[in-house]
Structures are given as C-alpha cells and as structure tokens.
C-alpha cells in the first residue's frame, strides 16, 4: 500500500495496503460472523480522517477498505468470506486478464450494464482514463503499480497534461488492452489497486475529487464534512447482478471522524443507542484489560495482521548514509520496550525481518539479535565508534499524534540515548502524515510507519515498493529509506520476472536478508488486531485482521 499502509489504531486497517492471508487466523465474537440482514445504517467510529476520497491519490489500509464501498475496478480481491480470500476475482471485467504469450499484453472485456452513479454506462475508455490519471504529477500519489508496469513515455504526465496514452488500447467500448514494459505475472492483482478505478473522461482534474466522487460501487456520497463526517447512501445505478463481491447489506454507512481513541472504546463498551451498530479500529492498549467480562469477551475479535510496523531510516541524511551507523541503531533499539509501548504480547509480536510470518516469502532470521530483544548497547557503541561517532549525534524522528505511536517513539528515544544518540520527536498531524513523510524534501532522519501487502499471496508488494531505488519520487514516495542499491534493484528485477510464484517467494525471502544487512529500516513488530464491534454487527470475518465492508451489516436493522 501507499506509504504506511499501516494506520494501526487510528483507522480500521493498518498500512498502505490491504491484503489478506489464509495462514492468518482470528477469533470472532459470538454471532458477529453471521450473515447480515438487509437494511439499517452501520456506524463507523474513527480517530483520523481518510487520506483522500480520490482513489488515485489515496492508498492506505483504512481508505482502501472504504473505496470498496464506492468504487469498482476491473479486478478485485475476493471477499473475506470467500473460499480463498487471497484470490483475485473479476469485478468490472467478465474474467481475469487474458495474457499474451510473451506476457507483455493483457486484455479484459467489461461486463454489460455496469454504470456510474450518473447513470452513464462504464466503458473501456473510462477505465483507461481513470488509470491514466495515475501519471498526473499532482494527483497520482497513490498506488504506483500501474504506472510502474504499463509502458509509457518517460515524459507522460497523465490525461490532463499529455492526453491519451497509446499503450492502453480501447478497440471498442467493452475491450481494453494493456501493454507492459516487461512481463508481470501478477498484473491482475495490480489492477485491483485503487488507481485502477474508472472515471468519466475529462473529470477529476486538480482538486475536483477532494470533496466529491463519481461512484461505481453500491454506495454514493450523501454528505462529507472533512475531519468530521462521511455519510453514504445507496447508489441506485449499482446492479447487484453484475457484482459477485459486494453484498451491500446496509442501506447506509455513517463514518464519525475525529474521535479520541479512548472515547471510541468507552462508547463500544457501553453499547448504547446506535453504538450497538458500530465498528471501529483496534482497541486502545489501556482497554484490553476491560474486555475480560463474559459479555465483552463474546463481542471481541482478535486476528493476526499481515502488517509490519517499522522505523524507516533516511539513508540520504548524514550520518545515516553510513551503514555502520544504521546497523548500530538496529542493535541499540530495545524492541521489547517498543512492544510494551504497543500494548504487549496481546497486541503484537517482535519483528526482525521485513516480511511478516503471515506473508508468503517470509524467512526467519535476526541479523541484530539481543538478549530478550532488549537491545545490544555494547555492539551499537562499537559500530558507532568504528563509524567515527563515538560521542553520538542528533537526529529527528517523524511520528503521528497517536498515543501508542508516541509511546513507541519514547521507547526508541530512550534506547538511542543509551548509545549517545539524541533523538528529537517531530509530531505531524495524522491526516497529512503519510503525504509529508512521502515527500523527500519534507522528510526528516527517520519515521515510524508501517506496511501491509497489497496482495498477500506473494511478497512482491512488500519489498519493491519500499526498497526499489528507481521508484523514489518527489511526492507519494514509499521508499522512505531512499535506498537505491544496484544489487538490491537487480535482485528485485530477478524476483519480479519469475513466473513460478513459489520460486519468487524464496527469492523475496533471500532478498529480505540481503536488504536487512544494509539496515535501511528497523523492523519493530507485527501487530494483532483486537476489535470490539457493537452487539448488532454481523459479517465480522477477518482472516488477515482487516474488516471487509463489502460483506458487513447488521443482525437486526430495526435496532439502534
């Protein structure tokens, strides 16, 4: 996902990225997994606003889940209750893509009768136009996959500035053909990203979609007050017979934004009024001890995530340009203290690798071990001395104003103080955090962030977005370390070209260790998700820790 598909604790899903894992298990509260009835309004309580309503700009866990309610793409991820929730399935297209023998061309045929909320039928030209928007320098700051994969001139800047892109062909209103730079076996999955959303030709220039949308999914925007409220109503132009994924049980959705995490938990525990129909992000650390009563236990859902929380180190900033300095930081950090700050073992597991164990391609290793994960001060000091920084230095860490993140940052601050590093904390508003740290000119020395795979059947959406130096951009940059290493780039190319996914995943696991020798990030932990849905919520199925709005609703729509 976009930078930091991890929005843990502030929204419903963690990282710039959605993705699920059949290997991840969860326990759901009594009755919450039952099939919803039709009707009613689901209440969503959250701290932070969504990044963008425009899917070409936005790309993080919380907003990606929201996009599935209002937008459709040629291909999408299967619903959480599918036999294989990792699978890619046709959405606007009649089938998955038909690929040419050389792997360079992918052809799709659109279903008949799919429409925008305006009543206009969605054509291949609308799909082409929506995808072309990804190249616009102002707008295209979301998912980078399509503009990285589709062949395009180096100076192409999207439809508003450069016109149509010849390498996306639309021979008729139902057919669209994509020509790629190189073979990419997972192109179906790339098309499932938000940047694959169609829009009517000529719309969406500049800030047009900052506060409005053109819906293609089952819901449309009824009301939007930035930072406060989003209300969705049914889209009468959506035809359920064309959509095998979205069940659209509720009549409406109400997102209440800007609430304190503790307030959200109190409301869910009390379960009064419309809060019996409410869902929210993972509960606050301080709340977990209160969920032990039989009534609350029956409502609690716990699931392992596929998302990594980490501290990115800006390798372009001195002295972080020196690998020994970065390795010293990796040794110095007391990960057990960071784990406690996160909420303890109930909430997370200490990480030493880039790829979590719930993602295909994971390999177990720890290049910077310490007793009880408490940090190795002596080894860190030795490396700093070798690098010429025996007396330490100062650096700045970017963080969000979320209590758990602030506690994590303070634990890191105390760890680095032991080896002479003076760490200052720079707090950035959550709504602009990922845009800010994703702009290299505004980025400081380090940042606490995270990443979720956009699809979990391979590690191809974990390593390249974070470490391919050729994809560092002036805005919307996901390679926070700004690592541009020739050997890493070459290994990425080799793994991406493999048509055997199992072999590719072995390559990704090996590359994980190769990258960690360079210490561009410090893996901190992999968080669990602990949810307390309202007692009237149904469809609560979380194979990878993430909600799937498309199958959620209420047990009894007349309540609340």
TrEMBL record:
Highest taxon in the source lineage: Bacteria
Domain Solute-binding protein family: residue ranges: 88-471
Pfam families: SBP_bac_5
Keywords: Signal
Keyword Chaperone annotated: no
Entry annotated with the keyword Signal: yes
SUPFAM superfamilies: Periplasmic binding protein-like II
Signal peptide start and end residues: 1-23
Record protein name field: ABC transporter substrate-binding protein
């Amino acid at each position: 996902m976009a930078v930091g598909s991890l929005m843990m604790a502030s929204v419903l899903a963690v990282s710039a990225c959605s993705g699920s894992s059949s290997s991840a298990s969860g326990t759901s509260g009594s009755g919450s997994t039952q099939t919803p009835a039709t009707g009613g309004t689901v209440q969503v309580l959250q701290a932070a606003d969504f990044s963008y309503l425009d899917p070409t700009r936005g790309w993080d866990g919380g907003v990606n889940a929201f996009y599935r309610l209002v937008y459709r793409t040629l291909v999408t991820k299967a619903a959480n209750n599918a036999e294989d929730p990792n699978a890619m399935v046709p959405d606007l297209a009649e089938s998955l893509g038909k690929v040419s023998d050389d792997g360079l061309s992918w052809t799709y045929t659109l279903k008949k009768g799919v429409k925008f909320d305006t009543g206009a039928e969605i054509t291949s030209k609308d799909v082409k136009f929506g995808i072309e928007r990804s190249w616009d320098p102002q707008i295209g700051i979301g998912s980078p996959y399509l503009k990285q994969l589709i062949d395009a001139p180096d100076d192409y800047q999207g439809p508003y500035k450069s016109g149509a892109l010849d390498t996306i062909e639309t021979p008729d209103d139902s057919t669209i053909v994509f020509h790629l730079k190189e073979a990419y076996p997972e192109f179906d999955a790339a098309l499932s990203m938000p940047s694959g959303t169609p829009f009517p030709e000529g719309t969406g220039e500049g800030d047009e979609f900052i506060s409005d949308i053109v819906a293609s999914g089952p819901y449309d925007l009824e009301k939007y007050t930035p930072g406060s409220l989003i209300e969705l109503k049914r889209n009468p132009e959506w035809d359920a017979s064309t959509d095998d994924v979205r069940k659209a049980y509720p009549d409406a959705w109400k997102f209440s934004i800007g609430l304190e995490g503790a307030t959200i938990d109190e409301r869910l525990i009390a379960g009064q009024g419309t809060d019996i129909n409410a869902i929210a992000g993972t509960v606050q650390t301080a709340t977990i001890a209160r969920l032990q009563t039989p009534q609350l236990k029956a409502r609690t859902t716990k699931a392992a995530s596929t998302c990594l929380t980490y501290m990115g180190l800006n390798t372009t900033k001195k002295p972080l340009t020196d690998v020994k300095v970065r390795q010293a930081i990796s040794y110095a950090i007391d990960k057990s203290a960071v784990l406690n700050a996160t909420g303890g073992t109930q909430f997370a597991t200490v990480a030493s690798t880039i790829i979590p164990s719930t993602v295909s391609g994971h390999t177990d290793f720890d290049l910077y071990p310490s007793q009880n994960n408490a940090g190795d001060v002596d080894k860190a000091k030795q490396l700093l001395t070798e690098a010429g920084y025996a007396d330490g230095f100062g650096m700045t860490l970017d963080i969000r104003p979320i209590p758990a993140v602030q506690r994590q940052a303070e634990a890191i601050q105390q760890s680095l103080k032991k080896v002479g590093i003076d760490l200052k904390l720079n707090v950035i508003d959550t709504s602009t955090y990922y845009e800010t740290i994703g702009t290299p000119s505004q980025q400081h020395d380090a940042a606490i962030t995270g990443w979720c795979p956009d699809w979990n059947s391979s590690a191809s959406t974990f390593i390249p977005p974070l470490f391919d130096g050729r994809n560092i951009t002036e805005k919307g940059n996901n390679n926070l370390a700004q690592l541009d290493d020739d050997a890493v780039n070459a290994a990425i190319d080799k793994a991406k070209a493999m048509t055997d996914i199992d072999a590719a995943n072995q390559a990704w696991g090996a590359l994980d260790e190769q990258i960690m020798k360079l210490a561009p990030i410090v893996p901190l932990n992999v968080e669990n998700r602990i949810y307390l849905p309202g007692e009237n919520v149904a469809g609560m199925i979380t194979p990878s820790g993430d909600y799937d709005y498309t199958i959620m609703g209420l047990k009894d729509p007349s309540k609340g």
